[in-house]
Structure formats: C-alpha cells, structure tokens
Design goal:
Distance between the termini: 54 Å
Number of helices: 16
Shape: globular
Structural class: alpha+beta
Helix content: 10-25%
Strand content: 35-45%
Largest sheet: 17 strands, mixed
Length: 1006
C-alpha cells in the first residue's frame, strides 16, 4: 500500500495552536477547577493541549494526520520519558490481544515525532505502547512541545469503532499520552479493557470527501460546511455508486475544552436532528432508514437526560452528539459524543442504550476514573442510573418489556424489570462459583468481567441507597460529582466524599462489596416466646436467634406482626458503621459473630417475623428470613415468570401439554416449571392422563445447591411413573471453574423398571435395573476466539443391589471441534465402549444411534406411535449416539443388532449456508445448517481390519432455529441425515443409494 502524508493547510485560526497562548488559558482554567474542587493534598493532574489535522480516505480505509501537542508537567517529579497509547495496534497480527491471529485488522503507524525545533526524536513501540525518551528532562512546572505524524489503518466495525461500507466510527485513533499521576505511569497494554487519558483541550480539523457529514467531540466551529440537506429526512447519497463521484474535500473544525478524549463519526447519509435541553443541545446524527424508530424515542431520551441532570448535576458542555453508528456493542461513550449500535430494533432497547451512554457523560466523561483498573466506577454507576432512569420513564415493573409483543409473547412472555434483572445476574453469578471481586483490573478477570462491574455494582448502589435513604445517597452523589468532575478520582476519593457528605462511616460497605466475594445470607434460626411478669405488667417476651450463614455483614431490618394486629419494626445495626441512631435500633451485631440473640418485650404474642421485609438486601436465600416454614409461592398460567423470578418468593408456571402414543391415545396433562434463582430450588413437574387407556403418569425433578458452603456441588432428585416405566434417581454433581479447562463429575444411583412392555418403540428387557452411575466431562476451549474446543465424556454404570441384571458398562467419547472460519467448523467424534455381564437389551451398543435407554428422556422417542411406527422399525428415526452409522438400521444389515463392544469414529465439515444470503426472507431454508460427513463403527470387535465395520458417507441438514410452536412442544432441533454411500448393505442393496434418517432433539420447554 502506498503511504502518503497529508499536510494541513494553514487556516485563519492557526495561531491558536501556539503552545504558549493556549496553555496559559488551559492552565488558568484548570487551576480554577482544582481550587473549586478542593483538591486533596498531593493531588495533581497533567495538562495536554492538542492541535490535530487528520484526513479520512474512505476508499483506503485509512487516516493520515499530524498531531501537535503541548504537554505540561504539573507533577512534583522530573520526567525523563513520556509514554503514548496506540490503541489500534491491538488489531495487529500476533498482538498481545490477538496472539493467535496472523491477520492484520488495523493499526496506528507513527511516522515521526519532532520537538519544537523540528528535530526527530527516537522512540520505540511495544504493541499498544510507545516509549519516548526525552532529549532533556522535563522538570515540574515546565512544558514540552511535540509534533507527531501518523497514519492509521481503520479496523472493520467492532465493539468500539471501525468502518462498515461508507460509514466510519473513529475512536481512540491518535497517539495519546498515558496518564502520569500520584501513582506513577499508567501504561497498561490495551487488550479489551477501556481507557484512561489525561485532561486537555482539543482543536481538531477533520478533512473528508465533500458528501460526508461529521459528528465529533466538542463544538463545530464552521457549521457552514454541513450540507444544506443534512436536516432533510429523505436525505440519501449513494457516494460510491455515483458514476463520477465528487472528489473534492471539506474540512470540519472542532474545538473541545476540558475533555480527555476525542472521537468522531463520518457518513455521507447522516440526517441531523437537534433538540435543546436547557443549556445543552442534543444532536442526533441518524441513518435515514432509521428515522421512524429514533423519532419514536427522542422524547424519552430528552426526559432521561433531564433526569440525569436532576439527580447528579448540571451537564457543563453546550452540546452532546448521539450517533446512529455501526458498532457491535450496544453503545460506546466518548466525551460529548456517544455511538449507538445501529442494529438495535426495539425502540425501548434503543432508548435504554442511549440513556446508559448518556449517563457515561458524567461517570467517565466528567468523573474520569481509570476505566481499565476501576471499571466499576463508571460502568457500575452508569448501570445504576440507567436502571433508575428507566424506572422513572416506564415504571418499576416491566420497564424492560418491549412496547409491542408478538402473539405468543403476550401468552407466554414474562415481565422484565431492570432492577430485578441486575439482581438476578448478580445472584446467579455469585452462586456459579466464578465470582471475582468487583475491584479487579479488567485484564485480570479470569471469567466474566461485565457482571461484577455492571450488575453487581449497580445492585450494591441500590442496596446502599435503601440503607441510608434517598436524600443522603443523592447528597453523596452530588458532592462526589461537584468535587471530582474534570479530574481523576480513585476509589478512596469516592469513599471519603461519601463519608463526609452523609456524615456516616461507610467504608465497611465499600470494602466488603468491592474487594471481597462474600455473600449475604441472614437466617432466622429460632424464635420462641412466653408471657412474663414485669414491673410494667404482663408482657410477651420474644427471643430471636439470628445467624449469618455467609460472612457478608449488613444492617438488618426486622418486622414483627403481632396477633392483635399491630406491627413493630426494628433495625439491627453494625457497631460503629452507621453513625445514625434510632430509638427502634436493637443492640449492634458485630460482623465477627455469626449468631445474634435479641430479646423483646411485646404487648401480644407474635404471628409473623420477617427479616429484611422490604428486600433491601441482596440476600441469596430469602426463604430462611421468615418464621413461616413454607416459603411464599407465586403461580402463573402460561407466563414464564420463572425466567425472571420474583426474588421474594418461589415462582412457578403451569402449562398444558398434549402428546399421542398407541397405548394411551391422546395424552393430556399439565407441566409445571419453577425456581428461585437459577442454581437454587429448581423443579419440573409433569402430570398426564391417557385418553384411551386412562393411565395416569407423573414425573418430578428437583435440583439445588448442596448446602455445604460451596456453589460447586449440587444434588438432583428424580422420580417418575410414566408410559410403562417407573424409577428414580439420586445424584450429586461437582464442577470445577478453571479456564480454559472445566470438569464436571456426577455420581448417582438410578433405578429403572419396565412394567408395561406395550410402550417402548424398540426392544426393552422387562424387570428392574439398579445401577451406580459415574460421569465425567472435561471441556477445554482455546480462549482466543475459541478456535479449538475438545470435550471428553466418560460414563461408567455398575449394577447395584435391587436389580435383575448384573452387568457393567462404560463408554468414552472424544468430541473435538476446530473453527475454520465463519460458520465453518471441522467436528470429530471418537467413541469406544464395552459391556460385561448380563445387560438388559436397552443398554447394548447400536451402530446406528443411541441405545433405547437414552430414548426415554426424549418425549418423541419414548413410546410407540408418537412418531410413525415404520420410521422406527425401518431405521429412519434415531437419536445421536452409538456408532452413528444410520445406514446399518435403514438397510437392515446384520450389524444393526445390539452388541457388547463399540468402536466408532466420525468427522463432520460444517458448511456456511448460501441460502441465508440468497433467500433471506424464505421460511426454514436460510436457517438450515449443512455438513458433509464420514462415519465408521464396529460392534463386538476383536480385531480391526481394513474391511471390518460399517462405514458411510453422507450429508446432514440441521435445523435449530425452530418456530415457537415446535419449541413449546420441547423440540430443540431437527437433523436430517442423508447417507449416499454405505459399505455393507444387506443382500441385494446398492452401496450407493438415497437413504434418510431423522432425529429430533428434545429439551423440555423453558
């Protein structure tokens, strides 16, 4: 690629770039800000003035620019080296962020760095960090003038920035000095965390082809460059499709004061809409085809912006640009500018995303914390205010629900609440065993970094708000904003500000919530009472014993309902942690003590005791907060509210179900699904009745975490009497939570009995099978784009007392997968197994598919007649497993009978579906997945030879994007196998023949 450096033309405002003139103004402004902000002792922040000229070359997807900057050292230290961030170098081949990728996707190339005399300075680059040794030390109070020439290869659109066709979202695009503060240099390599940059002032000239419209940080100083049609809703310019495109350019000039970053977006089809909100103009740069969606939510956006100003403080800039961008994240924040994902369809989701990014104008834009090291200081506070704003706009309940729901959603949807969703995300994360402290460096998280920094932090702020009250909480927020805007706050600055503003010592809260993974579980262990005689007369003495089952300590509210109808409310504080006192407070409960005893004298006996009656606390198990032993239950008909359950009760839903089999005829019944939070208290109940046979059926599953102090062990209970079979299971499961390898172990006892042989679709031995089962799954994935995934599965089953069949069975399966490209994978399967003793026929290995015992969990394969009988008889219906050579059963080969030994191998090549682009609006066809495969298996093998075993070649069509009615029946996927060659057909059959086999995946509807 030919490299060019575009030289900026002189303009009438070029004199403003002189370092002395502009620095004096910036220095005086910054002094005013720091004095008014009451800087703590030892605090300082560096100051930078930028004058940048950059040209966008759309056809080359490149930037060429010159950056003139004045760096003023306001620290007490003499600096010998400066460091710069080159964020786009993350996309270089084999960068720290992409060590396994040899493809260049973007970069920043620094051509030269010169001092004020025009002398070239030496520098070195390590991935995203440029190191610049200074020709002379920079003492405190002195400034340094530099001129940097650079080019940039713009990466394709991604989460934060990039290009897509004629649209450009340009963020973090220029060499930017790293922050030097009281904690030294902040020169973290850019992997996936966000940013930390010095405060400064910007003069930026952006040259683009004339049809392009530019939105950017700061104020546009020459608005006359905007096209006359920029506010015309029907505006559309196909820039690259013109036969003779306009090759002239236009330069946009922007000025931004007191910001710490600069970003811009460019598109030839932008439509501009402007709305004045107080002293600020909201500028919306929109795609013409999206105007209808955006127009429907602009008033909500305005109300959200006003809400944020009211709760936090006035927005100090004259403008805020909101851009309909083509990034892949929901939205990305920059000072004075936010980019919103242009693919968001739901108007309400779009409005919520915009409100979130607008809240970042305060938390990050004005309170410029280190996003990489303390991401919760901006993302957590922003998520909190996003939720609070949505509750203000749409109400507390259902504020995440779309404004319009499709037909099935009206019947089977559930109410989504933003606050409850954050609580659920946190609780499920905390109970997963993968939780890490919120205050962790973004690059050092081993698991999901987003739930702790977003959801858990928002939950913590709602908890604090309810504990200390709205007025004190807002006083803390507003004081924090007033004192620390235009600066770089650290966590300790936040803590101290809240303590002083509220008059409370709240470090106990911050330390526990941010720097530990402790959970909260307060239990009412015991409550007893009796009448006693006291000086004031006869009173009822209540003795309560409370217990902390988890170490997190917080003040606890207690509500007591008496039998005379009166109520009493108390608070159990923590010593020295809440300085406010109240006459209703009970003695303090020290966090070092797991148990607490309180004695109360009341005028009447107690009917009910509740801990945390208003659900202020993120208690992982509210069911033990009450003296009632049966937890409250909420039942729903059809509406799947258990997906987002009420956190104060057990949530369950009833569904009707309808199936058919040859014995019962139509089978009608009810299903019930319910839970508290995903890992805790999960049940599934099925009841059914055969219309022809009158036979009832029942199946019940229950699962939860084992209460032994770890979230890695759970137990399972299963009992059933259903369609000719009965049995049960008791099992324990243990999971490891390491990366990139995870392990799952299961140990259980299973009892199965066939009491009516008319139901099974395939051969099934009568009597009782009792086994001890052990299962091990090892899952390994390469973390860089998950190019290689391997999965080992071992299942061992040994006969236990009480059964009619003494046997042992084991099976080991290896499942590797390699990603070759978009929608293209190479998958393999290697299986080996053996049976000893006298097994029932349903446990044998089969070359064509899974053993009959595995079919019972699939409602479509469980009983004769649910699917056409001849499909099963002729081998056209099977479930994946066994040898996976479907032709053996289809052709009626001798090897189709079950065996005691199995050796099988299979390889699949997944292919991208061309119909997805050619016929995108057609039903079914665009969502089909295709693969070509080769499979081989041998049963009862003693010696492997070249001609032994069954082999086939074929094509599979896989459909997992099923319409809702099929998913409601429990169908998770449908696979059609088309073997066109089989190695050992039955006598008279051709090896080359059109064969087919169907399988239906079954997952009970959730």
């Amino acid at each position: 690629m030919r490299k060019r450096f575009w030289r900026r033309k002189k303009t009438k405002t070029a004199h403003l770039s002189h370092p002395g003139f502009h620095f004096l103004l910036s220095f005086l402004l910054s002094l005013v800000v720091l004095v008014r902000g009451e800087s703590p002792p030892g605090y300082f922040q560096q100051q930078v003035h930028y004058a940048i000229s950059v040209r966008l070359f759309p056809e080359l997807v490149r930037l060429e620019g010159r950056e003139t900057l004045t760096y003023f050292n306001r620290s007490p230290d003499t600096l010998k080296t400066l460091y710069f961030h080159l964020y786009w170098n993350k996309f270089r081949a084999h960068s720290y962020a992409r060590p396994f990728s040899g493809r260049e996707r973007g970069h920043i190339e620094v051509l030269s760095v010169q001092d004020s005399s025009g002398r070239d300075l030496n520098f070195s680059i390590d991935n995203t960090i440029l190191r610049l040794p200074l020709p002379r030390p920079l003492p405190p109070g002195d400034s340094l003038y530099l001129q940097v020439q650079f080019t940039g290869m713009i990466p394709p659109s991604g989460e934060r920035f990039g290009y897509s066709g004629e649209h450009f979202d340009i963020g973090n695009w220029y060499p930017v000095p790293a922050v030097y503060d009281a904690r030294g240099w902040h020169i973290d390599q850019h992997l996936d965390g966000e940013f930390y940059q010095e405060w400064g002032d910007y003069e930026v000239e952006i040259t683009v082809p004339r049809p392009f419209v530019v939105a950017a940080t700061g104020r546009l100083m020459n608005p006359e460059v905007l096209p006359d049609s920029v506010q015309y809703p029907g505006r559309t310019i196909q820039y690259y499709l013109q036969q003779q495109p306009d090759t002239t350019t236009v330069t946009y000039r922007f000025v931004a004061e007191r910001v710490h970053d600069f970003a811009f977006c460019a598109d030839p089809e932008f439509v501009l809409k402007q709305i004045q909100v107080g002293q600020t103009t909201l500028q919306f740069f929109l795609q013409p085809y999206r105007l209808k969606t955006w127009n429907s939510i602009l008033q909500r956006v305005v109300e959200g912006f006003s809400f944020l100003q009211e709760k936090i403080g006035a927005y100090p800039y004259r403008q805020l640009s909101i851009v309909d961008a083509l990034i892949t994240a929901g939205g990305i924040e920059y000072p004075n500018l936010v980019m919103i994902n242009g693919y968001i369809i739901s108007p309400r989701e779009l409005a919520i995303t915009i409100i979130h990014e607008m809240a970042h104008q305060w938390f990050y834009g004005l309170l410029a914390n280190n996003q990489t090291r303390h991401g919760w200081m901006d993302e957590g506070f922003t998520t909190f205010f996003e939720i609070w704003a949505t509750e203000h706009l749409w109400g507390r309940e259902g504020n995440l629900n779309p404004t319009r729901q499709s037909g099935w959603q009206r019947w089977l949807g559930y109410t989504q609440t933003a606050r409850r969703e954050a609580y659920l995300n946190y609780l499920e994360y905390a109970l997963s065993g993968r939780e890490e402290p919120i205050d962790t460096h973004f690059d050092y998280f081993q698991h999901n970094p987003y739930i702790p920094t977003y959801d858990k932090m928002a939950v913590g702020l709602f908890t604090l708000k309810r504990l200390i009250g709205d007025s004190l909480f807002l006083r803390g927020i507003r004081t924090y904003y007033r004192r620390w805007r235009f600066r770089h706050p650290y966590p300790e600055d936040l803590f101290l500000t809240f303590n002083r503003a509220t008059g409370m010592h709240l470090n106990w809260f911050w330390e526990q919530w941010l720097r530990t993974t402790w959970l909260l579980d307060v239990r009412l262990r015991k409550a007893v009472g009796r009448w006693v005689q006291r000086k004031g007369g006869r009173q009822f003495r209540l003795t309560m014993v409370l217990e902390r089952k988890q170490p997190l300590a917080m003040p606890v509210d207690v509500a007591i309902e008496l039998r005379d109808g009166s109520q009493r409310r108390y608070r159990i504080p923590i010593p020295g942690w809440l300085s406010r006192t109240d006459s209703s407070d009970l003695p303090s409960w020290h966090p070092a003590n797991r148990r607490y005893v309180a004695r109360l004298y009341l005028p009447a006996p107690v009917r009910r005791i509740q801990l945390d009656p208003q659900s202020k606390l993120p208690d992982i198990n509210p069911f033990n907060n009450d003296n009632r032993r049966i937890p409250p239950l909420k039942l729903f008909w059809l509406h799947r509210q258990y997906v987002e359950p009420d956190l104060r009760c057990y949530t369950a839903t009833l569904f009707p179900q309808l199936f058919f089999n040859d014995v019962d005829g139509f089978v009608i019944g009810l299903r019930s699904v319910g839970n508290f939070v995903g890992p805790l208290y999960w049940h599934r109940l099925e009841t059914q009745l055969g219309s022809r046979s009158g036979q009832p059926g029942l199946s019940f599953r229950w699962s939860s975490l084992l209460p032994i102090g770890t979230s890695r062990v759970r137990y399972y209970l299963f009992a059933y009497r259903l369609e000719g079979r009965a049995g049960g299971e008791l099992a324990l499961s243990y999971r490891t939570r390491t990366q990139p390898v995870n392990h799952r172990f299961l140990l259980g006892w299973r009892v199965r009995q066939l009491y009516d042989n008319r139901y099974p679709a395939r051969a099934w031995s009568p009597g009782t099978v009792s086994i001890l089962a052990f299962e091990w799954i090892r899952h390994r994935s390469v973390t860089a784009y998950r190019k290689l995934v391997t999965r080992w599965q071992l299942r061992v089953e040994v006969a236990a007392p009480g059964g009619d069949y003494p046997f042992q069975r084991w099976e080991l399966v290896l499942l590797p997968r390699i990603a070759l490209g978009p929608q293209t994978n190479l998958r393999g399967r290697l299986a080996v197994g053996q049976i000893e003793g006298k097994p029932p026929v349903q446990y044998l290995f089969y070359p064509s598919g899974a053993a009959p015992v595995r079919e019972f969990s699939n409602a479509f394969a469980r009983s004769r007649g649910t699917l056409p009988v001849d499909w099963v008889r002729d081998g056209h219906f099977r479930l994946p497993g066994g040898g996976q050579v479907a032709s053996a059963a289809i052709d009626g080969a001798p090897s189709a009978q079950g065996g005691r030994r199995l050796l099988a191998a299979r390889i699949d090549l997944d292919l991208a579906n061309p119909l997805a682009r050619l016929l995108p609006s057609w039903p079914v066809l665009p969502t089909l997945q295709t693969a070509v495969y080769a499979a081989w298996s041998q049963l009862n093998w003693k010696k492997i030879t070249r001609r032994s075993g069954d082999a086939e070649l074929g094509l599979t069509l896989f459909w997992d994007d099923l319409p809702f009615p099929l998913r409601y029946l429990g169908m998770s996927d449908v696979k059609l196998t088309l073997p066109f060659w089989y190695s050992r057909p039955a006598a008279g059959n051709n090896p080359w023949k059109l064969r087919w086999a169907l399988s239906v995946g079954f997952t009970p509807f959730r």
